[in-house]
Write the structure tokens for this entry.
Amino acid sequence: MTDKTMPICGDDYPLTEKQQKLMALARQLGRDKFAGRAAQLDRDAQFPFANYDDMRDAGLLGLCVPEAHGGHGADYATYALVSAEIGRYCGATALTFNMHVCTMLWSGLLSEDLEMTPEQRAQHREHQKVHFARVVKDGAIYAQPFSEGGAAAAGAQPFGTTAVKVEGGWKVNGKKIFASLSDAADFFGVLCTEKKPDADLSRRDTLYLAVPRTAPGLTVEGDWDPLGMRATVSRNLVFKDVFVPDDAALMPQGLYFQAASRWPHMFMTLAPTYMGIAQAAYDFTVAYLRGEIPGTGPVKRRQFATKQIAVAEMFIKLEQTRNLFLRAIEDAKVDPSKSTRLRAYAAQYTIMENAQDLARLAIRTCGGQSMLKSLPLERLYRDARCGALMLPWTAELCMDRIGREALYEPGEKDE
């Protein structure tokens, strides 16, 4: 099928030259490479190693590595647009790409907006050199295991995975679940809590450490046979007295807590994947009704009013989703206003909910053939169903935060 679809942002959205080039590169890889592999990867629940080889060769693993360190120096919005383009062709590749790229984004661009002492800043600069060189020169892949099965990933309590300071580094103990790239990452960016003598664990003592997959004491365990996003291969990580050196820090001590409080859009980086899935569901439906999908016969179905109305409904929902997405990624910055923060929650909720609804409408509109695994719609539907469940901003948590923060100013309580 010839790709006649418009860019993820629409064909009239103002893009920089860098954004145009990077989005075109992601689109070319997605169309020519990733799309053809997606069904088999999904069926076998296999990680997309070949897709990562392609992205490595194209330089995309360094998307958010600063230019001074040999990367593309992409900002938040550029990352989001590129990731959404990838999501149109392979949701699992886009979702895991998020884990890798956002490790670089958090350690790089985002950290520049945070308050540090001169000593912290200087040390962070040295640590950045280590991590960025691994990606740019060695092609290393970083993961970002987050969930532990409790409230820590939602920001309600300290992470249960702990790190104790020892000579020359840290000793890490704990467990992470749903650890995407568990079979592929060279380094796991682990969020853990510094365990201090005679003190309770505190969110203010969160550490962000890069643990090598080869580190003694680190094991990957558990089966992986989920409903959707099967090719992310998100198994469990268990840390038993895992030593990591001081230069493993991806952020200085205490900086993650500051970032989580002041840079809320850092938790919206899963959304571009699902924006891409939403677009893919619409694109497929239009092509199918026009008789342009190989293997489905040359029959055009676009002349029926019911199909035209369904496409209109999908287009309206897609445009609502796209415009909130674009506004939110433009908004991303340190210390956003209240309305900006609430809009980010609303964008996350809308993208995750509307992606699955667009996939539902696509299946209903395209009819019986859409159930076949030879076509992508059933995979898009299953992948889309997973988005609203993903921490730290699940659909339920977004609703909770919008309601609470709209009704209460900071520090307010009921008598």
Observations:
- The chain has a mean pLDDT of 95.
- The CA atoms of residues 115 and 144 lie 23 Å apart.
- The chain is about 45% helix and 10% strand.
